[in-house]
Design brief:
Elements lengths: L11 H16 L12 E6 L5 H12 L3 E5 L13 H8 L5 E6 L4 H6 L6 E6 L5 H15 L6 E5 L6 H10 L6 E5 L8 H11 L2 E5 L11 E4 L10 H7 L18 E3 L20 H22 L5
Parallel strand pairs: 1-2, 1-3, 3-4, 5-6, 5-8, 6-7, 8-9
The structure holds phosphoric acid mono(formamide)ester.
The site of phosphoric acid mono(formamide)ester has 9 residues, from helix 2.
Length: about 300
Amino acid sequence: MRHLLDTTDLSLEEIDNMISLAMDIISDGEKYAHICDGKKLATLFFEPSTRTRLSFEAAMMELGGNVLGFSEAGSSSAAKGESVEDTVRMVSCYADIIAMRHPLEGAPRVASFKTGVPIINAGDGGHAHPTQTLTDLLTIYREKGTFDNLTIGLCGDLKFGRTVHSLIKAMSRYKNVSFVLIAPKELQVPDYIIKDVLEPSGASYVQVEDMESEMPNLDILYMTRIQRERFFSEEEYLKHKDAFILDMAKLKNAKESLTIMHPLPRVNEITTEVDDDPRAKYFVQALNGKYIRMALIITLLKWGGALK
Ligand code: CP
């Protein structure tokens, strides 16, 4: 049995296979409409979510399976003090696979020690969000046809943004990828991303504070929200909240082939006028999240022997 706790749990070959499966689901969803008949997915969300939880649930339903779970800690026995380990141990008696989001970094890993079914990390604190990364990879593949030789600008809250950490871990494994890390100094990527991920990978990277000077070089611009819920004070959040706002003026010198991505939700960091630009792919990205989660559910259930 395998879990998905971090992007690096998957080899590049396994990621390729999952993307191929998602592409097949996109072209012929009917073929997969009953593959999970009789199977159950539990979504245990101790933190708010729209896309991740609902796309997981839609994914399982489109595979013929059923879903159960909770969307906030307050409606589970966590509110009475039950531990994550006990919660997951119980739920693994009721479901074949579990997708779990938790504000504490490492909580899904702890859960994985106490379960008889695959655990999927659907976001743990500021640490990782591997299924968002699979979503991002499918989007990049559909837009660019490759993961190699790309210059990716990551912009916004690179300190607390778990989607950014997971995407850097994934993309730095491909050939000749360059990263432009655009953030105020206080919100740059954590040191471990530089020391343990970027430097050992040999990928080139620059850290800058301004978006426009780098815009002409970018193949992908990945905007992110300032993560209000992870700041220690409201004052600190307010200082950074509108640090970067992408509008049409800022795209003046961007490539025609640029792909604009955002894991969503957005607050104020992309103006709605950009939504009509053909380079804006963040809503397609959200749709891709359902297809890749369908592929992930099938793959993990097969690896665990619950599906043939
Ligand atoms: N991208 C993402 O994780 O969105 P939600 O918080 O709505 O799940």
